[in-house]
Fold:
Amino acid sequence: MSAVEEKLAELGLTLPEVVPPLAAYQPAVQSGPYVFTSGQLPMVDGKLPMSGKVGGEVTPEEAKDLARTCALNALAAVKSVAGDLDRVARVVKVTGFVASAPDFTGQPAVLNGASELLGAVLGDKGVHARSAVGVAVLPLDAPVEVEIQVELTQA
Structure:
């Protein structure tokens, strides 16, 4: 087990299986020392645990937990390409999309779920740049979607 996966275990988490693509794309691809994930939904055991708009059917606190799940799924996608999460030199960028009720403006707080997970698991390597974007709707009516870009060390 990698040091990163040991840290996940300390936090009471396990790395899930990679979420299969919903369309014509790969969960993650590598270009040079970088791995780019596709947008990761908060799928758990192949199912979306909740749907709807944040600030409507989904509370900001629930959405923050879902963003955390998205980040965990993104780490699984990175591992599928890198082979070992200990190769992560740093998380470079996180982009998060929040399906938002018309008057909801708390997208950054929702995306903290993903950012805080990456920091807890990777320490200083998890500190990253980020965009938090409110959108009208996401695939499967998911409340949140997260993609990450990481830099790898040499194998």
